[in-house]
Amino acid sequence: MTAFIIANMAPLMFGALVLFLLCGYPVAFALGANGLLFGLLGMELGLFHVELFQALPERVFGIMRNETLLAIPFFTFMGLILERSGMAEDLLDTIGQLFGPIRGGLAYAVIFVGALLAATTGVVAASVISMGLISLPIMLRYGYDPKLASGVIAASGTLAQIIPPSLVLIIMADQLGRSVGDMYQGAMIPGLVLTALYAGYIIMCSVFRPSMAPALPPEARTLRGFKLAQRVLFSLVPPLVLIFLVLGTIFIGVATPTEAGAMGAAGALILAVIRRRLSIDLMKQAMESTAKLSSFVLFILIGSTVFGLVFRAVNGDLWVEHLMTSLPGGQVGFLIVVNILVFVLAFFLDFFELAFIIVPLLGPVADKLGIDLIWFGVLLAVNMQTSFMHPPFGFALFFLRSVAPKDDYDDKVTGKRIKGIKTTDIYWGAIPFVCIQIIMVCLVIAFPQLVEGSLGERKKIDLDKVEIQIEAPSYGDGGGYGGPPGFGAPSETAPADQPGGGEDPMDALKRQLQQQNQ
Questions:
Q1: Which of 48, 51, 111, 375 is in the most buried spot, having the most CB atoms within 10 Å?
Q2: Cβ contacts of residue 153 below 8 Å, gap of 6+?
Q3: 491-502: average pLDDT
Q4: Under a CB-based contact definition with an 8 Å cutoff, are residues 419 and 427 in contact?
Q5: Whole-number Å distance between alpha carbons of 507 and 492
Q6: What dihedral do alpha carbons 494, 496, 500, 503 form, nearest 10°?
Q7: Each residue of 404-460: pLDDT tens digit?
Q8: Which candidate, 152, 52, 30, places its Cα nearest to that of 96?
């Protein structure tokens, strides 16, 4: 039995983690407890020594010293301030008026605003809740199909996962050991393509089933001509300036993601002051939510560090590598299995948990198979986006359910009786967009240029051909050991039998120590 446990320590450890998670334990504590439990078991079985855990404090402090992770609270704080400062409300109202005369206009407005909010906030919850509160009642008022309205709002909110400055891309870059700026650049085009696919689905619905997405009636279009153009200009300029402040400075190399996040947070505060929405209560809410999310990420990262330390000590990384590299089909077989695995796990785990548990195991295998890790990270980010849309566990669906009307109600504007949104409507509305996300995964695999094209030409270094040449320092005629002048060299004043004479320096040192001991 002992021999079996020793030989299968890695799969047993991974299976125990799955069991912990299925039992409902918090992920951070499940990871840490699992690592400590199998660490004690490994020491008892003689697989490694207690000194292994001496590396743990340094790794934990390494997490707290990681400046890249500072971008997470900055971007979170920026998103929460913007969400509460009324930017989403102004954008949805203005863009809704702009696209209102065409079929599906409100749905296009939701997708467009979802992409803009994603590029400024990077927070899914803020986007979905804002658009659910503002757009959903208007879409229901003017006859939109409840399934389509629910699906487009939830899907547009999840664009914050793939369009920079996405939080998941920061985590992905950190776990894969790559630049956050490169990860952002690589994800930009896939994010825009996914946005276009969502809009394409709305076009199909409006053409083949016009009743699902009608145009706004003339009485609902209150802005026209110069007033509409003026409103569009004043609504779009602030978020576009903020997008440049955050993403532009990263892409042109002026600021690091952490510095850009700090500028974005400051910009969000300035916009809130201009809109006269900044208050002590708003600051308290934003800082409290930011602290909770940052602590959540930090605890999961510490737990995954404990798990990863012990998992590698029992050769778990080699077990995963052998398991994945032995799959038929090489790179293609690996990518198919990994994407199916991530898609299934996304039913039960959110993107933070997937990024901290699965990515550190798969990254080294992908690198060994010759897969570009920036491309691999963006591919996984697109796939993980489905974790927000999976019925019945998708978080975006939960966010929308929390603000969507459950019961029938009388509309205040038209006076009509509006049916409430059923949970099944939200689930059925999400399925077409999950399919679109799967199509996007296939497109990224089939056309790697979608990611790599925006990165430019990068120099590839063959580590096997790297030569390190160190020139020994020359101290003149200091003896055969290249020491300082006089070290081991005969001295005009020192006799040959004294230290520093013609004998070997080490022999001279030993003899001097022996004389001191006598």
A1: 111
A2: 110, 114, 128, 131, 132, 135, 136, 400
A3: 45
A4: no
A5: 20
A6: 170
A7: 888 888 877 777 888 888 889 999 999 999 999 999 999 999 999 999 887 765 555
A8: 152
Amino acid making up residue 493: T
Closest CA to 157 of 180, 129, 187: 129
Amino acid at 312: R
Distance CA 126, CA 80 (A): 7
Asked if residue 366 lies in contact with residue 373, where contact means CB atoms within 8 angstroms, the answer is yes
Structure tokens at 453: 């094209």
pLDDT tens, 95-139?
888 887 888 888 998 898 888 878 776 667 777 887 888 788 888
Q: Is the peptide bond before 364 cis (omega within 30 degrees of 0)?
A: no
Q: What is the full DSSP assignment across 78-141?
A: HHHHHHHTTHHHHHHHHHHHHHTTSTTHHHHHHHHHHHHHHHHT--HHHHHHHHHHHHHHHHHH
As a whole number, mean pLDDT of residues 73-81 equals 85
**128 residue type, one letter:** V
The four Cα atoms 46, 49, 50, 56 give a dihedral, to 10 degrees, of -120
For residue 495, pLDDT over 70 is answered with no
3-state class (DSSP) for residue 257: helix
Tokens of 19: 């069991």
Please answer whether residues 512 and 499 qualify as being in contact, where contact means their C-beta atoms are separated by less than 8 angstroms.
Answer: yes
Chain position carrying tokens 């939830």: 154
Q: What CA–CA distances, in Å, run from 91 to 70, 88, 191, 217, 238?
A: 29, 5, 20, 20, 10
What whole-number distance in Å separates Cα of residue 386 and Cα of residue 437?
7
Alpha-helical regions (H) of 142-215: 146-157, 167-176, 180-208
The dihedrals phi and psi of 62, each to the nearest 5 degrees, come to -65, -35
For 427, what's the count of Cα atoms within 13 Å in the CB-facing half-sphere?
6
Helix (H) or strand (E) segment spanning residue 410: strand 409-410
Residues near 476 by beta carbon (within 8 Å), at least 6 away in sequence: 485
Kindly state the tokens that stand for 329: 């089909």
Q: Whose structure tokens read 């708003």?
A: 282
Ranking 91-95, 326-330, 365-369, 456-460 by mean pLDDT, the lowest is 456-460
C-alpha 299/C-alpha 305 separation (Å) is: 10
Nearest to 365 by CA among 335, 396, 400, 399: 335
- In whole angstroms, what is the distance from residue 229 CA to residue 216 CA? 18
Angle (nearest 5°) at CA 146 between 143 and 148 = 100
Q: What is the DSSP letter of 417?
A: E
Comparing CA positions, the residue from 339, 366, 330, 448 lying closest to residue 175 is 366
Taking CA 51 as the corner, what is the angle to CA 49 and CA 53, rounded to the nearest 5 degrees?
105
How many angstroms separate the CA atoms of 490 and 484, rounded?
13
